[in-house]
């Protein structure tokens, strides 16, 4: 039995460390909830201007955010009007209710 443990000590150690790391990750991470931000279109807003406001915080180019907004909101004619509700996906809210960027 002891020789078996000595021969497989690295494998046993690997499983123990993996198990402990899994427990650490499970219990140490903060609960984050994926959420979408909905904004109301104001007069003078365009998809491009809205995308510019969120591009840096999403870590994307303005053009990529435009495409994301169009896809999420099913905007096919690239036209929005005052009062429309636009959803911007990809943000997370942590326990402090502060917005943080979702991982890509």
Automatic annotation (TrEMBL):
| InterPro entries hit by this protein | LysM, LysM_dom_sf
UniProt keywords, alphabetically: Membrane, Transmembrane, Transmembrane helix
Pfam families per the UniProt record, alphabetical: LysM
Q: Which residues form the signal peptide?
A: none
Bilayer-spanning residue ranges? 9-27
Keyword Hydrolase (UniProt): no
Q: Does the keyword Transmembrane apply?
A: yes
Residue ranges constituting the LysM domain according to the UniProt record:
37-88
Task: State the coiled-coil residue ranges.
Answer: none
* Protein's name according to its UniProt entry: LysM peptidoglycan-binding domain-containing protein
């Amino acid at each position: 039995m002891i020789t078996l443990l000595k021969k497989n000590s690295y494998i046993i150690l690997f499983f123990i460390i993996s198990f402990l790391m899994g427990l650490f990750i499970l219990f140490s991470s903060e609960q984050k909830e994926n959420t979408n931000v909905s904004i109301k279109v104001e007069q003078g807003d365009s998809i491009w201007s809205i995308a510019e406001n969120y591009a840096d915080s999403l870590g994307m180019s303005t053009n990529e955010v435009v495409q994301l907004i169009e896809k999420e909101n099913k905007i096919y004619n690239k036209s929005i009007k005052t009062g429309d509700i636009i959803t911007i996906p990809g943000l997370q809210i942590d326990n402090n209710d502060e917005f943080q960027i979702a991982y890509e």
